[in-house]
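Blinded run. Sample ID left blank on purpose so nobody reads anything into the name before looking at the predicted structure. Input follows.
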Amino acid sequence: MEWPLQNATTGKPVTTPTNQDILLAAAEAASREAPEMVASFVAGMKACQNWRSEYVALMEAFVRIQANVTPTTAVAMCRAGLVEATNAFRFHRDDAQSAPFAEAFTQEWEALETETFRGSQNSTEKVQFALASPHGTDANPIFVSGAEAVAQLKVWSDYGCMEPSAAEHATRVCTMKDISSLVRGKTFVLLGVTSEMGPASTLLKIPGAHVIGVSRSGPKLQTLVDFLHQSGFSDTILQVPKGGADLLKQAPQISRWIVESAPKDRPIIIMPLAYMDGEANVRVTIAMDGIVNYIRERRSDVSLTYLTSPTTVYAIPREAANDSKRRHDEGNIYMRAINLMSLGRLAKPSNVWLGETGSLLIYNGLLHLQGPNYALAKIMQQWRCMVAYEEGIIVAAPHAPGTRTYSVVHSLQAAAALEGFQYMEPMIAFDVLPCSTLMTAIILDQVNECSPAKLKHPMELFMDGSVHGGLWRCPFSSDSIGPLAYVLGQMIARKGWCPSGALASQPLASQEST
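Blinded prediction complete.
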């Protein structure tokens, strides 16, 4: 998978023109319905001198167009952007010159072989869902079920780091006597099966789960296989391409392998999970989108689920916005002083509550630190979800919070900011296991809902089950407290700490162990 433009001297990809072309193509789909807004957006793009510093405002302007047009036009914008991206990117194979990515799926490729792994446990006892408690650590986890899990879910919801709907979804799963019914008869296709925040390790502990995973070979995949053998049941299955597979290099082969490997009598739940740093994240996002499209065209029983990013631009519920305003109005004098001394640059009011009654309220959670390629990749994932929803596909796409994954903490600046943000209630940073188990519970309930709620606008899709880490209800705009969070994270915060208000009572398991 290649960007269409490269620097002639360095050979590195030139990403800005393609970023802008994709957004312009998407905006053009709304030109009849919202000509003035589109014209203003196009003018802003043409006047842009520094995409890296100006993309945040332009991305917000684009999303506001989507929020102010009809649902049909909003989805048309998503389709136009995805088509532009697919046609723009090139796919290179060793024995031929590069061609548009879409053409790669029509070519002949060597078939992938399959490796199948099973668990070793023979017990047929009923299995409850195990939620990782924030009282534990990723190295020494503490798992809670039933009433203890529900207590922690309520605390998170009351604190404001996730929406009540997230607690409702997860509570239904955590209070089930046997969760195997949520996975039996289904095939979970995980693109990036070794993703830290993904559901693989949780699913592979459930009797009857069938996971088709895509990952490059290496220690992470071997660790997952070993985990299944030690902790999984004998009727729990993991299938992967023999020798691993590369999403950037083998998307057409992976697509065909999945269609051939997935049983025809089991509905597919496909979850694109892979993440890569920098410009590669756009490429892997488009590669996974191509795989989703290929499978969707050949199977009518597909559900789609993403862990969407809260640090993008999207609509939020008015109740969350009102809570943000309440917190701001009750805010402390120190943050007001910081805002005044910085001439309004720091600790700016979130202002998400501004908007006419009945209209969609837009939240801009973009962080300059993450950059425009990250923003484009994540907004394209939202586009695919909106298109799929409009086509009648079951879509589970809750926001996942800031988490101490390797992709975050290997950046010292990002790691410090993540810890520092927690001084701005109700924001918290999650460890990997509490986040991944929580998001898995939410998604399992969402994809098993008999009759998902009908939405007035497809942009409302991402409100249900959101675990935004407190961003929606924070009194301040995320980018304006980023520098403060970094300083606090560097000077004061302890690594891996959690605000006491976000912790339920210490679980019995941890009390007994001490």
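Unblinding after everyone has recorded impressions. The mean pLDDT is 93.
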